[in-house]
Specification:
Length: 256
């Protein structure tokens, strides 16, 4: 094989190519993601040490009073043992993995994607990127519906750097920001923020921040010193779904 082909392959020209094809790009946390990785050989024989899939999202990070976007790896999966791909040869590697139950959902500006990489020694590693649309599971969907029943509208959703007290598996949390547009909390609250920490598919811990509306001089002073915010931790299971609106109302009402 021409030495020039080997040199070109080492810098990514004429080297192996990778293409991942997902069976479905719409998934729910806890579900199985399936697909096939297609590998096509380049101009020269190459040894592939590893094929890996990694799950990613972005989040807002703050440093020196400046905000910027960072990328976080949610999980990583190794697919194969080392193999050699011949020039123009095609290989198909099927895969499946379980989407973590605490993966962010595709709401607001939150993006989730699967990156595929080939680890080829002494060469530029080929890669591929495929977007996933992650939908809320039925329990989370019920919580959103309960908030809507109470007159709240989802205003914003984003992944942000997690304070140390809220940091779990990742350096970020996905925050959902609601505003009361009707119902008993309109005029009493400025906003309601929620962060979900799934325990299982049937149970979730909700961290809520209730931001009371400033009323009078005392209210404005409290708002100035951020004393108008109360933190609430609420555990919700599937058994709560029939009375979820009432449970949510009771938890928020204690701080209004």
């Amino acid at each position: 094989m021409s030495i020039f082909n080997k040199v070109f392959a080492s810098i990514g020209i004429g080297s192996a190519q990778v293409d991942t094809r997902l069976e479905s790009d719409t998934v729910v946390p806890g579900e199985e993601v399936r697909g096939i990785v297609h590998v096509k050989g380049g101009r020269t024989e190459q040894k592939v040490d590893e094929i890996y899939l990694s799950l990613h999202t972005t989040y807002i990070k703050e440093s020196d009073d400046k905000k910027y976007t960072a990328t976080a790896t949610i999980d990583r999966f190794r697919l194969n043992d080392p193999f050699t791909i011949q020039p123009s040869e095609t290989k198909e590697i099927p895969f499946s993995f379980i989407l973590p139950i605490d993966v962010p959902v595709s709401i607001g500006r939150t993006k989730i994607w699967v990156a595929t990489g080939l680890d080829i020694k002494n060469a530029v590693d080929p890669s591929d990127k495929d977007s996933l649309k992650v939908l809320p599971n039925s329990l989370m969907d019920s919580i959103f519906s309960a908030a809507e029943d109470l007159g709240f509208r989802l205003r914003n959703a984003d992944c942000e750097q997690a304070p140390h007290g809220l940091r779990r598996n990742y350096p970020f949390v996905q925050e959902f920001e609601f505003v009361p547009i009707s119902g008993s909390f309109r005029g009493k609250l400025d906003e309601l923020e929620m962060v979900f920490f799934p325990v299982s598919e049937n149970e979730v811990e909700i961290f809520m921040q209730v931001d009371r509306k400033a009323r009078g001089l005392g209210g404005f002073l409290a708002e100035a010193f951020e004393m108008d915010e109360s933190n609430v931790v609420l555990t919700v299971t599937r058994n709560d779904v029939p009375n979820l609106s009432q449970k949510l109302h009771a938890a928020i009402s204690r701080y209004c």
